[in-house]
Amino acid sequence: MTYRILPFIALSIFSSCSSTRSIAPDAIRPTVITQQVEFDTDDPAIWINPADASQSLIVGTDKETNGGIYVFDLEGKIVNKVTGLQRPNNIDIAYRLMVGGKPTDVAVFTERETNKIRIFSMPDLKPLDNGGIEVFTGETQRDPMGVALYTRPGDNAIFAIVGRKIGPSGSYLWQYHLKDQGNGVVGGTVVRKFGAFSGKKEIESIVVDNENGYIYYSDEGAGVHKYYADVNRGNRELAFFGTKDFKSDVEGISIYKTNDKEGYILVSDQQANRFSIYNRSGSAGNPHQHVRIASIPFSTLESDGSDVTSVNLGTRFPKGVFVAMSNGKVFHYYDWRLIEDRIKQGK
């Protein structure tokens, strides 16, 4: 693997888009487009700098054999990377995992060709996993793709929910408890296997609502599933929604939080270059009834993974930032205020 700190390079907005032919005239335009990675961007995650939120970072995957993990600043410039990874796919961030007796922020991502999840420290991208944690052990269908992290209230235990390219309905996703094995190396223990699947395409994008305690994941050809995140609350499906809201693939999911309980769920309508928006808190009287409230065109092309935060990140992003993958080997950053205006308009 190669670890490199890169110098700042001037950013040219829109220069790295591969095409604009499919962008709707009324699409929201990005505030920032990142520098290009080598192969193919897939999924971003936002790391909030606890000392200064305006110095927060975006970490994203370059999905290919010998691909990598790239760290971008809020100007879209590459400031760090790890290359030589074997098809890294989805990525997520968790805070204050105890490693070697110290609270450590971590980036966790799937490495498809090795059938592992990888765990690196943030923001310096140092491996903490002794080469990785094997997942779906004993299964004939492995090929991990999606991952999301859940921090349980009370004991702050951290869990990785991992999905795969192909898997059986009822146990498509596996949940792992991540924990220091006592030597400064993080290991993972399976605590449950769950997850309905329509059988139509595949499951990749997963997101966790920590405060409300829910897992959402995209069943690409069918809709969005919802489960409890805490293994102690069982494997009953709570909702299956968005079944008629998408042109084709149901893809990247992210959650914007206006407070601990409310906000928005954003889901990529990949081939339409749009995002469907749902109320995080559901409908009046039913927290599990999620009805689409807006379908917004974006300048992303065939967006796969995404992430969002409501934290004030400075003058460009005072109400937070939405980050989405786009064709062209890049990620797009959107000022949340632009999205908020469209949600209010219902379009």
UniProtKB/TrEMBL annotation:
GO molecular function: inositol hexakisphosphate 3-phosphatase activity
Domain of life: Bacteria
Pfam families, per database record: Phytase
InterPro entries assigned: 6-blade_b-propeller_TolB-like, B-propeller_Phytase
Database matches in SUPFAM superfamilies: Thermostable phytase (3-phytase) (SSF50956)
Ranges where the BPP domain occurs: 18-343
Protein name, per record: 3-phytase
Organism name: Arcticibacter pallidicorallinus
